[in-house]
Amino acid sequence: MAKTELYVVRHGKTMFNTIQRVQGWCDTPLTKSGVQGIHYLGLGLKETPFVEAVSSDSGRAIETMRLILGEHPEASTIDYRVDPRIREWCFGSLEGGYDAEMWGVIPRILNFPDYDEMIAKKVTFKEICEAIYDVDTANWAETYETLSHRVRTGFEDIAHRVEKKGGGKALVVSHGLTISFLMHLINDENNVRVDIDNGSVTRLSFENGQFTIEDFASTKFIEQGKEISRTLLQS
After folding, report:
1. Rounded alpha-carbon distances, angstroms, from residue 59 to 32, 56, 85
2. Is 88 in the active site?
3. Residue 11 falls in the annotated catalytic set
4. pLDDT in tens, 124-153
5. Of residues 5, 88, 95, 163, which has the active-site annotation?
6. 49-105: per-residue pLDDT in tens?
């Protein structure tokens, strides 16, 4: 049996990413530079033999997957599906507002003077999730238990399915805070991070029902794709 691995990609840069607005369950398309970045990522991954591809059901994740597979010579043989469990956190009534507003409110709810102090004091994902839940006036935000269950089972089911096929590599497109949260679920020593680059790849191996983090938020495949692109232009 081949080693079971997940290549977990954060979607390409979107309009809301660019103007720094909160984008959880709401959605905006990739920008021109976002498309270009994922084009490079696709070139960097085109020699990777994926046996399965899974994206969240958000449009930005589906668009990102389409662009990556568009560069892959074996795309027609890769089983692709969408899974709503690996979408971004729901930020409820905070959706669509400026990032600075949300990350200004949450520290105050948790009795921190500002965002930097909150992160420095190693605030937990549970505390952030509960703060979002408490401040959400629309009653859309998820509880920590609901969020933990959907993210964990979403990624575990992908890994189990690949394992049952005989192992191999799966390409997964998800979202920044969800990927960071998954790292915490795998190893609770991983602190809160909200700065994962668009198009970065987090590699996970899966064995005996457990994930191991092999690489976190790497941009090396994007850089490899840029080099391939330069070579093609020169030839």
Report:
1. 15, 8, 14
2. yes
3. yes
4. 999 999 999 999 999 999 999 999 999 999
5. 88
6. 999 999 999 999 999 999 999 999 999 999 999 999 999 999 999 999 999 999 999
CATH number belonging to the domain at 4-91+142-234, selected among 3.40.190.10, 3.40.50.1240, 1.20.140.20, 2.40.50.320: 3.40.50.1240
Tokens 């020699």 correspond to 47
pTM score > 0.90 for this model?
Answer: yes
Q: Which residues are annotated as a binding site for substrate?
A: 10-17, 60
SS3 readout for the chain: CCCEEEEEEECCCEHHHHCCECCCCCCCCECHHHHHHHHHHHHHHCCCCEEEEEECCCHHHHHHHHHHHHCCCCHHHCEEEECHHHCCCCCHHHCCCEHHHHHHHHHHHCCCCCHHHHHHCCCCHHHHHHHHHHHCCCCCCCCHHHHHHHHHHHHHHHHHHHHHCCCEEEEEEECHHHHHHHHHHHCCCCCCCCCCCCCCEEEEEEECCEEEEEEEEECHHHHHHHHHHHHHHHC
